[in-house]
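Exercise 7b. Backbone tokens:
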């Protein structure tokens, strides 16, 4: 039998949870659409995609925020070019996002004293940070909030999805090889079990574009993403090839949708951006 103290603690924790959910809902009410980018495994270019999805939407004239919840590997800071910029609180005590190219960015990288400092946190600390990003950031009015999550189906994406019951949907990123597609199917099932609409699947690194002749070589095969989409009954949003100039742009903190105007990767990416925007705007 529980003691009175244990019962009181249980009631207090439940009350705190309700209050936190109310605060998050209030802070998110002026954001029209919320999209989470998921992948079943690492190394498929998920953060690169999330960054360029955000900047691609901004290039269409949308008001966009980018939330990086990949706490242990916050690469969004480098890819967006915000470098050593640090987050700060305004007079109301809310965290102000860092603006980059018209996109409001929140990333753990902007809280670290050193770029190489590891984030050595267990679950409760990670959940507290995510709650702060959701309830204490002055996003203002946005058309889209793009959320970059770590690979897999662990604490971070689970917590965000549970705290944002009005999530518009998830975009699943994969590469063409079988092992990545196997993980992508699990991620689709994860989203469905949590009641999140899967907006579609994207096949990244779909062929390598030779910088000299423009010929495409299918290093990791091709077509797996479309097959997985058909098998799972979801939309196939498109495939994005690998290009050396695109990879260099990410290292330089320049989203390739802005800096590589003539690239096949940008053309493919913007086609995907427009599909996602069109689907959500039609809602």
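Sequence design result:
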């Amino acid at each position: 039998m529980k003691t009175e103290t244990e019962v009181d603690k249980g009631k207090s924790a439940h009350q705190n949870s309700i209050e936190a959910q109310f605060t998050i809902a209030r802070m998110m009410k002026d954001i029209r659409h919320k999209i989470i980018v998921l992948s079943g495994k690492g190394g498929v270019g998920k953060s690169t995609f999330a960054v360029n999805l955000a900047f691609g939407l901004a290039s269409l004239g949308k008001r966009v925020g980018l939330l990086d919840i990949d706490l242990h590997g916050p690469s969004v800071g480098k890819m967006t070019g915000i470098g050593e910029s640090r987050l700060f609180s305004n007079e109301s005590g809310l965290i102000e996002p860092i603006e980059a190219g018209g996109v409001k960015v929140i990333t753990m990288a902007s809280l670290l004293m050193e770029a190489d400092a590891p984030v050595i946190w267990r679950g409760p600390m990670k959940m507290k940070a995510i709650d702060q990003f959701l309830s204490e950031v002055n996003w203002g009015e946005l058309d889209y909030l793009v959320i970059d999550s770590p690979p897999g189906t662990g604490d971070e994406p689970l917590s965000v999805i549970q705290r944002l019951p009005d999530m518009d949907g998830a975009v699943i990123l994969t590469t063409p090889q079988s092992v990545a597609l196997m993980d992508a199917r699990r991620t689709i099932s994860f989203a469905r079990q949590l009641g999140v609409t899967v907006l579609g699947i994207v096949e990244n690194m779909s062929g390598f574009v030779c910088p000299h002749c423009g010929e495409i070589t299918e290093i990791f095969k091709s077509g797996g993403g479309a097959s997985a989409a058909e098998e799972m009954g979801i939309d196939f949003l498109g495939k994005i090839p690998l290009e050396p100039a695109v990879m260099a742009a990410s290292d330089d903190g320049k989203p390739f949708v802005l800096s590589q105007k003539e690239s096949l990767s940008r053309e493919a990416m913007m086609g995907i951006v427009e599909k996602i925007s069109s689907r959500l705007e039609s809602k």
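Instructor comment: Residues 272 and 278 are 10 Å apart (CA to CA). The chain has ten helices and eleven strands.
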